[in-house]
Amino acid sequence: MKPFFERWTIVAAIAIVLAGCADAGDRLREIARVRSHLERVERELRASTPAGLNAAQIEKRAMVIQNLHRYINAERYPTNRISQEMTPIFIDGDGARCAVAALLEASGHHALVERIAGTQNLAYVEELKDEPELQAWLTDNGITLAEAARIQPEYTPPTDSWNLTAMLFGSVQGGAQAVLAPGARVGIRNSYAVPRGSACDHCVDRSWALMAEYRRDFLLSLGSTNQVSLLGQIELDGFHQPGHFNFVLGPVASFDEDDRPGRGYGGQLGFGYSLRRFSIRDQIPLPFFVEVISSLIHFDDGLAFHAGANLGVVW
After folding, report:
1. How far apart are CA 228 and CA 11, in angstroms?
2. Would you call 102 helix, strand, or coil by DSSP?
């Protein structure tokens, strides 16, 4: 039993190290995404002025655009720690204002901002169209409701962060020898927003993961061996889809307590499909995955190539 616990101690230690790699990259990515949206909207506002505005409205509109420019450069945007969905936030828990709230406050409407944040903090601008003070501000400043809605961004949910991920699976592979192997992966996963098409206004979410893998390979006619891998996985589509295609790639080391097959090193490459977030009628989880996987390992007596499939559960 001792070698078993030693192997899992190694896997757990690798997972802890991976978890410690999380940094401020997620926040920087979110700031860049929001800034890209706001800069695009600023260009739209400067390029097109609604018809029928009087001189006072045109002057105030120019001031709103200038305030928006200052807000963009300050980069103090709200952080979504509230909802699991992309959502607007008028004021976040740290006091950061959304663009619309900041523009209202810049023209003296502090009470309106506090009232909206207290009663409808996650509301879209279209949902606030019956607010008299907001409607008056839009009219006075030559801003249409549609333009205000364009100014208002959504913020990425808390899944734009590092989270633990795990897999339990069985593997069947063929090559120089047939291989049957139970295994497990543990590590961390980072989900992040990416543009759909050329704009960030409507984003999908993707993820990538770093995982430590342990597999106990049973090679027919040769005995058994241990395999430890460090794998990277990249999902190819967003979590709003029921399933996710992904690539997996990483180095692998093989070792055992006997002479055969001996110690070796090489790499793994796979292509898979998972239902990591899928559930039946949003009640019964069905987190399974399937992978087509191949490995090439160099042993003292030559190269060993295996290819087959992994099937298991994923979180």
Report:
1. 8
2. helix
CATH code 2.40.160.20 region(s) in the chain: 161-314
Strand pairing category for 264-274 and 279-280: unpaired
Record the pTM: 0.52
The lowest-confidence range among 86-100, 139-153, 257-271, 294-308 is: 257-271
CB-CB contact of 161 with 24 (8 Å): no
Return the structure tokens found at 184: 């497990």
CATH number of the domain located at residue range(s) 161-314 in this protein: 2.40.160.20
**Digit-coded pLDDT (tens) for 239-263:** 445 677 889 999 998 887 565 666 8
How many C-beta neighbours within 10 Å does residue 74 have? 10
Q: Specify burial of residue 288 (Cβ count, 10 A radius: 0-12, 13-18, 19+).
A: middle
φ, ψ dihedrals at 23, nearest 5°: -140, -160
Distance CA 287, CA 271 (A): 17
Residues 258-281 have pLDDT tens digits of: 656 668 889 999 999 988 766 655
CA atoms within 13 A on the CB side of 182: 1
Contact 87, 158 (CB under 8 A): no
User: How many degrees, rounded to 5, is the angle at CA 15 between CA 86 and CA 155?
Assistant: 10
